[in-house]
Amino acid sequence: PGMYTSTDLVDGLELTSLQGDTLTFTYDGTTWMVNRVAIEIADAVSSNGVTHSIAGVLLPSSDDSMDEEA
Questions:
Q1: C-alpha dihedral sign at 39, 33, 52, 58
Q2: Strand segments (E) across the chain
Q3: Spatial contact of 22 and 16, defined as CB atoms under 8 Å apart
């Protein structure tokens, strides 16, 4: 949990999503990315946090334990 604006990001920063997956932030000198997807709009502040719009969709990893129960 936490609120991160673009000024809080550092290359290689790893955070954990609400689903428990790792979000890795990288910077190539011109573009910030999260899990290799470009951040297009940063720092949209709202009443419940900060949103960063990205150029793709991040899907949660599959839960192998769910597959074994089926």
A1: positive
A2: 14-16, 22-27, 32-34, 37-46, 49-54
A3: yes
Cα distance between residue 50 and residue 52, in whole Å: 7
How many alpha carbons fall within 13 Å on the CB side of residue 65?
0
Bridge partners of 37? 34
pLDDT digits (tens, 9 = 90+) for 19-64: 899 999 999 999 999 999 999 999 999 888 899 999 999 988 876 5
Alpha-carbon separation of residue 59 from 17, 28, 41 (angstroms): 11, 23, 19
Residue linked to tokens 């502040």: 45
The pLDDT assigned to 63 comes to 65
